[in-house]
Amino acid sequence: MANHPGDEFLQVAEDAFCRMKEPMKAQELSNLVWAYAKLGEVPGQQLYDLLMHQVMNMLETFNPQNLANCVWGWSKMETIHPGMENLRRVEHKIFVSLPMFQPQNLSNCLYGLTRLYTRGLKDSNLDKSELVDSKVSLGLPLALLKEIEKHIGRLVKGFCPQDLSNTFWSLGTLSSYQKAEFDPSEEVVLCMTDELLNRNLLEFKPQELKDIVWGMFYVRTAKENPKLLERICSAMLYKIREFKPQELSNSLWSLVKLQSETFTPNNELLDAIAECSVQKVDIFNPQNLANTMYAYAVIKHRLSDSFLARMEDAILNCVTEFCPQNIGNTLWAFATLEIAPSRQVQWGLAAEMVAKRDRFKPQELANSMWAFAKLFERNPDTKARVMQRIPTVDQLNLMAEEAQRRSPELHSQNLSNLIYSFALLEYLPAAQCIDTLANEVLKKCSSFKTQELVNSMWAFGSLAYAPSDELQARLQGYLLENLNRGDYVTQDIANCVWSWATLNHKPCTAILDKICTETLNELPMFKSKELVNVFWALAMIGRYPGDELWAAGKKALLEFANRDAVRSDGYCQLFQAHTVAVDLRWPSPLFEGVEMEAAKCAAGAAWLRVVQDVSTSSLQQSVTAVIRRLNPPPPHQVEWRTTDRLFCVDLQVEWKGQPLLIEVDGPSHFASNRHTILGKTAARNNALRARGYTLLCLPFYEWDRMTERKEDLAAYLIEKMDTAVAGALASGVAQQTVEQATEQTVEQA
Asked: What 3-state DSSP class applies to 664?
């Protein structure tokens, strides 16, 4: 910036200009605008109005240098804008004067017009994506842009480094904002890139190198030049210590975005940028910090502990200045890198996210919640996870309310990511919120990709939220279409069938047939957990996989077991699938033969550990108390084990000479939004009845309703037990021994 003469001098000069009776000449006007811009100043309103009036009156006398000075100067004055009507007149004058332009005139005019145009767009409060739909034309006229392109080809060899960088930056910016209308021609891009290849890039300043790679990212055909990109990387590496914070972060961001099959930023440059960033991190602003973290996450570059520690300290120092995009990108970066920042950083970002939630764009909202969910998922202390969760319940409530309010703005990926994030965070939003989001899924699921369909289904299952029959049918229909096209991965198959089993939902035969077929076709690609989930879910649904898949799947599961690739919870699922296969008399059990004996023992042991880990709920205690107050109290046992020791039942009562099992089903046995039992409860009921037991299930909502109304709980319980026993006797059900009901014994387990 030029030497500043001082505020007092500027005020005296400004007063003098305003008192001048004679209008200034074209060169005097343009030089004055240029001078204010170089000084980083903006003239007062009176002088500015006078200058604009005289410029417009004298416009026809302006030569290329005058035009370039004015346009460039206006673009540097951030707080003022000449207005679109005046700008259109200037554009016309530029158009007719282009044949007389010199290289610097052309680059400065294009640069200035681009800055003024993008500022006008921001002032209009229109997003880039909304520009095409806007009835207000804020873009540069296409005819002018095409004419400028012709003269770039004429003048490019006379461009100095700054002219080249300004032109590339301008073309990239215009392409990003006007991509529906303008994409630089291949001819002009080729002449620009060829000229750069012929130049000594070591003569370019850091800002010029930064602007070139930034522009190249947005200019489609410029991306396809790995030779030039490699040379730019070499020049950047040579000059890296001269780079300022914004030049470091923006260059890194652009290079990472330019990554392709033919170009990847070399590790030496990436490490050098990281080293320089650490040295200058104290003067990084929030945008620099967020862009740096985001770029390294995109390319998944390994970062040192010292780099991360310095970045976290810098984030904490200015976190209150983070805008929504900075918050979302920073969180996304940590989650993508699978690095959990300190809890102080997480608390700070969470607080800013909640405070600024109404300013978040839909994608920023979804990305931030997704990132917090992924960081939460990585917490190894499962018992402390919910208590230590960030964001807190109160913060999540506010974010859920914002998601509900903004739900019409959420497109498919935002919508599925938000619901998926709530599920990962083990947080169930208020009924009105989750119902609203589910309704948006119903409206928009036709545009969902496979992963978005499956993530939504998995989230509903994890939250124990039962979608409407219409929504389930729509999700299944679109998923079946995608499966038929081969548009899926193995995790999609595992997650969708798991969600159905969890919610006790019976999907249509067509999609189950397809699931079994594709599981068999892709069996070698399945991970251990995915295959376990598929077999468990099919058993819960009661769908026999078919002889070929059943045999091949058992072999694959045995291989996983032999490699110790099955976790304890996976073994527990497999044991449950095994008992279901026996109960339903499938052609063969899951664990069959000597080679499966070790896996069978491991699965049985995992199942028994779960059965033995029991606790008595207050609801169960309430029912037991009523049983004991009956006159006379019937013989009963609390936490009664079935003969095969595979199930622990809340109560076993001898009622009217018949053994009766009572399960007191609290809210965890039902969908969160309706009184339908979940898959695990249905499987328990089926297993107990398959063993010949008479079962009475007491739902919490009936018991609570009776309690609230202070009705006779004893009479209610007697009626329920009478009905259950009478029904069993009428149907001729006799209690079977464990040997008749299942092949497992305690010793085998």
From this structure: strand
Q: Which residue has the tokens 């309010």?
A: 405
- Which residue in the block uniquely carries the two structure tokens 């920042």? 341
What is the span of the domain harbouring residue 712?
615-741
The answer to whether residue 329 sits within a structural domain is: no
Here the contacts of 354-361 (C-beta below 8 Å, separation 24 or greater) are 354/391, 354/395, 354/398, 354/399, 356/323, 356/324, 356/327, 357/398, 357/399, 357/402, 358/402, 359/323, 359/324, 360/324, 360/328, 360/402, 361/127, 361/324, 361/325
Residue 331 inside a domain? The answer is no
Read off the tokens for 155. Answer: 């003048």
Q: Are 62 and 94 in contact (CB under 8 A)?
A: no
Mean pLDDT by 10 residues, the chain (749 residues): 75 86 91 91 90 93 96 89 88 95 96 86 49 46 91 95 95 79 86 94 96 90 85 96 95 93 92 96 96 95 94 96 96 94 95 96 94 85 68 96 95 95 95 97 95 96 96 96 94 97 96 96 96 97 95 94 93 95 93 90 93 88 93 92 92 93 95 96 94 94 88 91 90 47 39
Last residue of a domain, one of 177, 199, 221: 199
Q: Is 715 exposed, middle or buried, given 0-12, 13-18 or 19+ CB atoms closer than 10 A?
A: exposed
Asked if the structure places residue 55 within a domain, the reply is: yes
Global pTM reads: 0.85
Q: Are residues 631 and 602 in the same domain?
A: no
- Answer whether residue 322 is part of any domain: no
Q: What CATH number did the domain enclosing 697 receive?
A: 3.40.960.10
Is the peptide bond preceding residue 391 cis, with omega within 30 degrees of 0?
yes
Contact between 534 and 497 under an 8 Å Cβ cutoff? The reply is yes
Using the 3D structure, point to which of 611, 628, 646 is the last residue of a domain.
Answer: 611
Sheet with 636-641: list strands edge to edge.
Answer: 636-641, 648-655, 658-665, 695-699
CA 7 to chain centre: 49
Q: Note if the bond before 667 is cis, omega within 30 degrees.
A: no
Per the CB < 8 A criterion, the answer to whether 537 and 497 are in contact is yes
Is 255 exposed, middle or buried (CB count within 10 Å of its CB: 0-12, 13-18, 19+)?
buried
Beta strands at 658-665 and 695-699: parallel, antiparallel or unpaired = parallel
Q: What is the DSSP letter of 59?
A: G
549 with 630, same domain: the answer is no
The verdict on 564 and 619 lying in the same domain is no
Extract the tokens encoding 314.
Answer: 């810098």
Tally of structural domains, the chain? 3
Residues 106 and 32 in one domain: yes
